[in-house]
Amino acid sequence: MTNTTQSKVSKKPIAGSMPAIVTPMFEDGSLDFPALRSLLDWHVAEGSDGIVIVGTSGESPTVSVEEHCELIKVTVDHIAARIPVIAGTGGNSTTEAIELTNFAKSVGADASLQVVPYYNKPTQDGMYAHFKKIAESVDLPVILYNVPGRTVADLAGETTVRLAGVPGIIGIKDATGSIERGTLLLADLKRAGHQEFSVFSGDDLSAAMLMLMGGKGNISVTANIAPRLMHELCQAAMSDDVLKTRTIQYQLLAVHKAMFTEANPIPVKWALHEMGKVTSGIRLPLTPLSVALREPLKAALKQAGLL
């Protein structure tokens, strides 16, 4: 398998605005598949360039293996190759990550998102071996996911450059929020001859700057509620339209901040509830957005023209 960001199934590139989509739930916590299908159609119509299913925003820690697989299959089937589907199949067990990734491949996902192993705190060599084993075991493109604020373990830039040379590993979602780190990684990848390896932002506040420096898109929380604007932001930034990038970024700035007043996906699910897209269902140990934060969130949505 070559290192390329071309989707094998949808035939569209894996780039641009890709919402890390929420998992709609009824008030009792059961999965709301009609709402999911409706959201997927809305994202396609609004210009989202891809869909990431069962990631952090999709409450991956609290869905069962059976639900995890069903969410991937329903999404792939309903999207029907209109845009790429990236399945969150990572974890802190290499064996389980391979099993989930094999399932995602079997139902037609375009790529997998592989989080840095959490809790067991592997070394850099352990992280390298983990991701390499997954890429070698399943013929499905791998996007690394570095989010040290959640995993504690932090994938170093040097390790990322090493992994960029592994066939099948095509990019990284950098959710550190550090423009310095992202820019240095882009430069190091270029020096190492890995220009085709894609760096995606995983932090909405800094995504525009990373894309202006050469990032290939944004795996986004805000895109859940502002898919058209986030698509336009990504396209502007990746085509060096600084004025348009700045204009949209300022329009969405309060929304970006509001999405993290409590742990993701608490605020974004409440925002979608306010917009009439989903119920307020969320699974323990997460609970609905605190009452004191609801009016400020609505104000941010109204300011951005989303309500």
UniProtKB/TrEMBL annotation:
It comes from the Bacteria. SUPFAM superfamilies: Aldolase. CDD domains: DHDPS. One of its GO terms (molecular function) is 4-hydroxy-tetrahydrodipicolinate synthase activity. One of its GO terms (biological process) is lysine biosynthetic process via diaminopimelate. Pyruvate binds at S57, I219. PROSITE patterns: DHDPS_2 (PS00666). It is an enzyme of class 4 (lyase). InterPro entries: Aldolase_TIM, DapA, DapA-like, Schiff_base-form_aldolases_AS. The active site is at Y145, K173. SMART domains: DHDPS. Catalyzes the condensation of (S)-aspartate-beta-semialdehyde [(S)-ASA] and pyruvate to 4-hydroxy-tetrahydrodipicolinate (HTPA). Homotetramer; dimer of dimers. This is 4-hydroxy-tetrahydrodipicolinate synthase. The gene is dapA.
